[in-house]
Design goal:
Elements (H helix, E strand, L loop, with lengths): L3 H20 L10 E12 L6 E10 L7 E11 L6 E10 L21 E12 L8
Length: 136
């Protein structure tokens, strides 16, 4: 006779094995192409004028795209000073993919019809610090 506390453990193991076995027969999943562009521009200064902060991002993605990623991260940090602050960033992503999610045994290729997923993140911080005018 199986003890009740071991019955639950046995069912859990059987369920895990079943999930693994069924997962090997399931079709493969594939994602669209993804472009992530993360930029941080921060200025903490005592200048008379606000900081000029420009983030120019271009994404060139033609046609269906599957299975590729393009990631760019950058930081532009200015701390101190009383002069002008210019933070200019240009980023250009070109992405292409196979256009097909591939095949599994006996399956036909499936294409992803959606566009490339773009995730632009742009943080711009400009803080006036009057204490910078006292440092000379």
């Amino acid at each position: 006779m199986i003890k009740p506390q071991y019955l639950g453990l046995g069912l859990l193991q059987a369920g895990a094995l079943a999930a693994l076995a069924l997962g090997s027969f399931a079709p493969r999943a594939s994602a669209q192409c993804v472009v992530a562009d993360v930029a941080i521009q921060a200025a903490i200064h005592g200048g008379d004028q606000p900081a000029e902060q420009v983030n120019d991002v271009a994404i060139d993605a033609d046609g269906p795209c599957v299975g590729n990623t393009s990631v760019s991260t950058s930081r532009q940090i200015q701390v101190g000073g009383t002069g002008e602050v210019h933070q200019i960033r240009q980023s250009h992503h070109q992405i292409r993919g196979s256009g097909s999610s591939g095949t599994t045994a006996g399956a036909t290729p499936r294409t992803v019809s959606g566009p490339t997923v773009a995730v632009p993140v742009n943080v711009q911080v400009d803080v006036y610090n009057p204490a910078d005018r006292l440092r000379r």
